[in-house]
Amino acid sequence: MVERTDGSRLLKDEVAYELTIRGLPTEGSAAELRGRLAQAIKGGVDIVPSAIRSLDPQEELSICGDKAKNLSEFVRAMEDTWSSADVRRVEARRWHLLKRLTALQGDQHQMDQRDHLLEAVCLLGDEIQAVKGALRKNPGPPGSPSPSSPLPEVSETDQGEGSLPEPAISRLPYYGLAATPPLVRFQCSSKGDARFSVSAEDIAGQFLESNAYLRSMHTDHRTMMAKGVFLATPQEAKIKDFTTEAASKVTTAVGLSTSEISQLNNRFGEFITVLGALQREQLSIKKGVDAIQLQFGHLRDKMDRLSLSQQGELADLRRGMQGLATQLETLRTQAPLPAPTGHSMAAAAHSQNRTAWAPPAGEVLRGHGVLEQPFPPPPPHSPAPSNIHGPSSNFGYRDMVASVGKAISQIAWYSGDSKVGSAESWVAQIRSLKQLKELGGERIPESIWVQAAVSRGQGEAILFLQKNQTSLKTLDELEAALRRRFEGIRTELSYIQDLERAVMAEGESVTQYGERVKALAERADPAKHPDQNMVALQAFMRGLPDGIAVSTAQMNPQSITEAMNKAQAALSMCEALKTKARPAALHEQPLTTAAIRSQSRPSSPQHGEHRRIGYGRRSASPPLRHKKGSPPPHEKRKSWSYNWNRPFRSDVYCNLCRVKGHWGRECAYRLGGAKY
């Protein structure tokens, strides 16, 4: 059966609570309140949730705790003479208290207190059931009603497969089985390098709490069995699974703690080893300090053993030196030296140095135990020469270049080191020379220092400096360019500058040149697709050879990919025209390189000069050109694969790396080369 609130068996404050949660007035006597509650229950007035939420949880917990304590003491004081009506009155009050606690809501701490009170109120039912059993053995007068249970009856529809029936679920808090098990308050890690953070007290406390919880569960189980209450098979399985889960957590925590303790023991051994080494080192340091203190004591004893006469001589010498310094300062004040404008820089620096003093004329050095020694008078000052002018009065451009060339030879060679700070230190040397020249009066423009710095590069650095020397005007720009190129410190502005200066190199195909422009465009503007970047398209068109650029521009391409295809078509047409115009004997040379070279910018004068030298020697050979594989008789070699053009390569001079033996287009440091 389902319990209902019986206002006739409740106290006045309990009846007032029932009226409050239903939104009814609570004024009047106890009889009026009970009648009002009976009418509300009979009329089906429901409980208002907002009225329950408006109550103070802490005050409700305090009231319910006092009522549970008083009700428990009242039940324990029952005697066998009590009737079933008295038991019904106690059951009604316990049922009211149980529903009052169940409807209570609050924070986590308040909910924990509520659960403990619920457990106490449920356990109070055991004592009431014991009183009911005594009343059954000693029945009252005929016609008295039988006692009822505060728990709901078992319903067959509630017994679903895999779940506990409703009475069993209700009995969980009744027998103390819904208490929250102790949780693991620490975490252990099985990694070898994890930091150990679990103490022995935590492990022991966790084990004791879990053990006490399991003992409480077993005690409740034995109590239920002693009272004749047996659990069904699903309930026993549920309790077994719950117990196994709680025990597995403790077992896992203990296992992890054991592994952590073993790791701590291993680390403790290492710690002992290191501590021993530190103690030995400390002992050796202490011995060294003791030895130093002993030597210091000997030295102090020697100083103490100095005679008073020696100390007096030292004092006399100190006073004599102070007197000489005073006389020298007086002479300088009375007869100042001439102005340094008529002297050289060394003489001016010497006259300004207060410590570089000469002994006064006619004075003698007097002191304790020292013979008198007269000083000869100094020679008179020579007049300042009139033909000396400022250092930059007649300093022309050639003189500046010559002066910088002599000074720059003291700077180390720069080969493009990728170590961070190498470019900064190299440029700092040049700045130091520049400041030194300025101290000497030579005001040399900074652009001359930049051009002089280019001559101190070698390898890949000289190629980069020669390529960009026209755009470098200051030492700051030089340092930034070197750091960007060789140390990898670059910005989007640097990629934009490289994109604007991009030119199709000799021996580079249209596809390679286009992909290089795309890469620069993507780094210069990452937010925009490189194929749709109009700035990159214009840079690509500017870098093409003149003939190919004009033909491609007439086709009006809209993207770099389209421009690459049209430029390749124009280049193929140009190669076809060149092939028809050239002799058949020249078909062996590559056509693409010749066509691009004919349309590209002219090479440097040094390159042309060395080409003229090479071809001058080749012109001395017979005018008829032999076929490949048939070298002239005077050029034959033992090897059949020997190229008869190779002997002339000893006079070829590369205009890029300044090394003999190959052309500039074959250099590994060229644009797109292996070492570019």
Automatic annotation (TrEMBL):
Domain of life: Eukaryota
Residue stretches of biased makeup (Pro residues): 139-150, 374-383
Skewed-composition ranges (Basic residues): 624-639
Residues forming coiled coils: none
UniProt feature, compositional bias: Polar residues: 590-606
Record region (Disordered): 134-166, 368-392, 586-641
Protein name: Retrotransposon gag domain-containing protein
Native source species: Nesidiocoris tenuis
Taxonomic lineage: Eukaryota, Metazoa, Ecdysozoa, Arthropoda, Hexapoda
